[in-house]
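Hi all, long-time lurker, first post. I run a small reading group and we've been trying to get comfortable going from sequence to structure in the token notation. Rather than ask abstract questions, I figured I'd post a concrete chain and ask someone more experienced to write out its structure so we can walk through it together at our next meeting. Sequence below, copied exactly:
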Amino acid sequence: MASASAEVPAGEVDRSHKGSRLPDLSFQDATGKTIRTTELTGKPLLINLWATWCGPCVAELPELDRLAAQGKVQVLTLSQDSAGAKGKVAPFLKGKGLTHLGAWLDPDAQGSTQWQVSTLPASIYYDAQGREVWRISGSKAWVGAEGAALLDEAGG
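-- Answer (accepted) --
Happy to help. Here is the structure in token form:
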């Protein structure tokens, strides 16, 4: 798969969408509970698109779980697994001991379409007012010095 932006290599920060408003999208978990992205303002928000079949995504999940546990930044993980995996995502996260990440589903890939993502994992970061700060295709060490510096860009 190609990276989300042709001019920005995977793993590099893409600020070409900086200032864009957080789109109003809705996602559900396997139980039917709904979350709307626009309800997540007030604190910086890191949206991560991932899939159970994506090795780099799975490797990144423990870092995202630790970041979510810190509580400074909201972390919204959106599984890009197909609709047939509806009952698979929550047990997958639980089996990995990831207790701070929600099992949000995006089986129709509306997130990938909205954020023009073609490589997983992909992360999009918004400030507390719902304005995009940056995005990254590929995994990151979110709780290390580099990740902290990136998250500090929005007060996270």
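A couple of things your group might point at:
The longest strand covers residues 45-50.
The beta strands are 13-14, 26-28, 34-36, 45-50, 74-79, 104-105, 122-126, 132-137.
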